[in-house]
Amino acid sequence: MKLWWRPNETRGIVWLDQEVKSEAGDETLLPTLRISSDVSKFKVKNPGGELGVRISRIVSEIVRLGMENVRWFVMGDDDTFFLTENLVKVLQKYDHNQFYYNPSF
């Protein structure tokens, strides 16, 4: 994340399953870290279905934060690398007042 995260330019949250230790001083160089709510109480019949439940919970938790002046929410997983300039360029083509989901951006 340190390669693409831009403190004071980008905003974001990294959602984790459990707390992790970070090096002293990293707090200002990285996005906010949050622990997503426990989804173990949800009974999932499909193998791997827990991931879908976790993602939907994270989306609802983001909405409840009530963040202001946000045009886009972009989600990635642990092996996602964002090229911020490219991402901004692609998103400028879309109306931020509409809902979109495109896993092949």
Structure explained in plain terms:
This protein is α+β, with helices and mostly antiparallel strands. The chain has one domain (13-91). Helices cover 24% and strands 8% of the residues. It contains two helices and two strands; from the N terminus they run ββαα. The protein has helices at residues 49-65, 84-91, and strands spanning 13-16, 32-35. Strands 1-2 form a two-stranded parallel ribbon. The longest helix is centred in the middle third of the chain and has 17 residues, at 49-65. The chain is globular, with a radius of gyration of 15 Å. The chain starts with 12 loop residues before the first strand and ends in a 14-residue tail after the last helix. GO terms for molecular function: glycosyltransferase activity. This is Fringe-like glycosyltransferase domain-containing protein. InterPro entries: Fringe-like_glycosylTrfase. It comes from Vigna mungo. Residues 68-101 form the Fringe-like glycosyltransferase domain.
How is this fold's topology laid out?
Blueprint: E1 13-16, E2 32-35, H1 49-65, H2 84-91
Parallel strand pairs: 1-2
Round the mean pLDDT to the nearest integer and report it: 79
Low-confidence stretches: none
Largest sheet strand order: 1-2
| Tally of helical runs | 2
Descriptive labels:
alpha+beta; 2 strands; 24% helix; 105 residues; two-stranded parallel ribbon; globular
